[in-house]
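A.,

Following up on our hallway conversation. Structure tokens first:
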């Protein structure tokens, strides 16, 4: 397959078909008609559109300054270059790809759609902001909507004619959704009048769609405070006539767009509902079930963020590799005594090799993790009861590790890519600075990474009856360890085994802390614990990868070394691929996993300094 500057398509195929064996999903009746050839055709199309249409739009839209807001008309204009990109995406039917055929979808495994998300994320994060909310809204309406709501909205959103949002955040209630003040008042015809303000609303208003459907969290007049009193409503920008056509304006306006560090071509809007008392919404699902319903979309969005982080990280890494091959600077340190040696490509310098292998090892672990979750979601909704239950438990446990871990890393990886470019990386001559600017938000939206850490610590681990989710997670790791015996060198198995033993012991200690109600101490440890789980998880996935790549490397390369090895790698792309996979996995397990010991030492520290911290100690900053 041809190389591209955004995604390692060979590694995509490796993860999907050699590691996860996703073509085996055809064992389920719903996927029986989809073979590997069909799946690969969808990936090829995603690559073609992403590389040739979406990526150029990303560069152009950013140079044009991104989204433009017109205060007099309250209109939001997206750079024109995004229009053909979105048209190509929707004409190719990517939103329909994983949806059931009975609602106008193709019915292909969701993991293939998730894989396509990496391509589009690598090409343009702003682009994916418009598409991913539609994906989530379709699922909300499909699972909780009335027949009338499904008939009015699903076809239009799936086709890309209409867009959608997710309206949670308010000026006075950021992550504390239960403090929202948006109000819903029942009307005699069964509809509700909605009044309130929302902020940071992606795709809140644009000129890309005929209509925009807003899932809005609001409190029905008289319902209790907090999250238990929240309901969710479908609020269209234009009311929808009985024949499905857009009707009169629904008293929903954009009051401004955010001026952001990155994602400049993504319309991040402040929205006002019902300024004139005429904003109509319909209840989605049951009253006071808004958070439970919306959480489905939130969880899907967290997986989506992990794929976005993977995409931008992988693109930054590939750009760094290509640049380092062509940037001539400095002499080969092994030939410094040779005055006629001349300058060499910077990829030959030891520290550059270290930087690139560090990026490669993390990107490849991120890819396995995100794809594995997508694969498990297909199993969860297709398999028998017990297999589906285990898949659901593992998805729940891995989601915060993927969302927080990938997004933390994307900021570091894009930064390291800039370092490879040197001064040019800090300039707009190359897109790595754009990748970095766009990547930072990923650790903030869809639940900050601190929230991910607290969710993992309490709901997914300590408050989970019998630690069922953790038990499935550790069982899978132990299965990989046993599978590696006799295939992988013991020096790359034992660090994963030892890390798992340490984690088991730590979890036992944390259960005791919970019994003793040492809640502040536990929450101080939430983010370091999540970091520790990231190292353990990535080590496990690299070991899993080695069970496949080690035999392939031995088959293709044998025991040759030195110049003979270099000759073999030059002549055989497959030998280079598997050797690179093996070295990246060995590097991670033998070096990066050692950082887990530091996280464990932090978590086991009995120092009480953090418990003594008071607001007043943070001196030196103005009070106002």
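Then the amino acids I'd put at each of the 624 positions:
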């Amino acid at each position: 397959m041809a190389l591209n500057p955004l995604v390692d398509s060979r590694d995509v195929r490796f993860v999907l078909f050699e590691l996860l064996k996703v073509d085996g999903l055809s064992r389920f009746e719903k996927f029986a008609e989809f073979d590997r050839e069909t799946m690969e055709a969808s990936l090829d199309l995603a690559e073609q559109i992403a590389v040739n249409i979406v990526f150029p739009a990303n560069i152009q839209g950013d140079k044009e300054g991104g989204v433009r807001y017109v205060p007099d008309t309250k209109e939001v204009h997206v750079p024109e270059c995004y229009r053909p990109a979105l048209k190509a995406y929707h004409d190719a039917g990517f939103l329909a790809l994983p949806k059931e055929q009975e609602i106008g979808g193709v019915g292909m495994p969701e993991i293939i759609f998730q894989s396509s998300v990496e391509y589009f994320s690598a090409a343009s994060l702003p682009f994916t902001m418009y598409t991913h909310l539609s994906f989530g809204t379709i699922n909300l309406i499909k699972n909780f909507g009335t027949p009338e709501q499904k008939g009015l909205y699903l076809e239009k959103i799936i086709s890309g004619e209409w867009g959608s949002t997710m309206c949670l955040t308010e000026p006075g209630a950021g992550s504390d959704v239960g403090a929202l003040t948006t109000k819903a008042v029942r009307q005699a015809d069964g509809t509700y009048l909605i009044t309130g303000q929302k902020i940071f609303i992606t795709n809140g208003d644009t000129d890309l769609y005929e209509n925009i459907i807003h899932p809005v969290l609001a409190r029905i007049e008289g319902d209790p405070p907090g999250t238990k009193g929240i309901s969710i409503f479908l609020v269209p920008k234009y009311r929808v006539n009985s024949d499905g056509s857009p009707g009169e304006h629904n008293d929903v306006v954009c009051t401004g767009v955010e001026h952001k560090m990155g994602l400049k071509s993504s319309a991040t809007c402040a929205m006002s509902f019902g300024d004139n008392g005429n904003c109509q919404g319909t209840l989605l699902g049951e009253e006071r079930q808004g958070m439970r319903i919306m959480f489905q979309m939130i969880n899907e969005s967290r997986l989506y963020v992990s794929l976005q982080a993977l995409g931008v990280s992988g693109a930054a890494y590939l750009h760094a590799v290509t640049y380092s091959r062509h940037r001539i600077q400095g002499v080969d340190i092994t030939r410094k005594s040779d005055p006629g040696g001349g300058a060499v490509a910077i990829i030959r310098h030891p520290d550059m090799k270290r930087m690139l292998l560090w990026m490669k090892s993390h990107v490849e672990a991120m890819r396995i993790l995100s794809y594995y979750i997508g694969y498990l979601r297909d199993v969860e909704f297709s398999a028998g009861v017990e297999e589906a239950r285990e898949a659901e438990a593992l998805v729940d446990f891995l989601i915060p590790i993927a969302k927080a871990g990938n997004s933390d890393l994307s900021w570091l990886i894009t930064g390291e890519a800039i370092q490879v470019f040197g001064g040019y990386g800090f300039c707009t001559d190359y897109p790595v600075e754009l990748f970095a600017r766009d990547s930072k938000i990923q650790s903030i939206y869809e639940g900050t990474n601190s929230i991910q850490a607290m969710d993992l610590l309490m709901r997914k681990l300590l408050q989970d009856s019998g630690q069922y989710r953790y038990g499935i997670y550790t069982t899978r790791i132990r299965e990989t360890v046993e599978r590696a015996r006799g295939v992988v060198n013991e020096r790359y198995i034992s660090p994963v085994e030892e890390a798992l033993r340490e984690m088991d012991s730590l979890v036992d200690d944390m259960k005791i802390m919970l019994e003793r109600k040492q809640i502040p101490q536990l929450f101080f440890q939430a983010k370091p614990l999540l970091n520790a789980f990231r190292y353990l998880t990535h080590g496990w996935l690299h070991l899993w990868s080695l069970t496949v790549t080690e035999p392939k490397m031995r088959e293709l390369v044998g025991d040759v070394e030195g110049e003979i090895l270099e000759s073999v790698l030059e002549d055989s792309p497959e030998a280079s691929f598997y050797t690179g996979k093996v070295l990246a996995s060995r590097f991670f397990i033998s070096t990066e996993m050692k950082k887990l010991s530091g996280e464990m030492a932090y978590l086991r520290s009995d120092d009480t300094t953090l418990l003594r911290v008071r607001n007043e100690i943070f001196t030196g900053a103005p009070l106002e």
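The first strand starts at residue 68 and ends at 70. Curious whether your intuition agrees with the design.

B.
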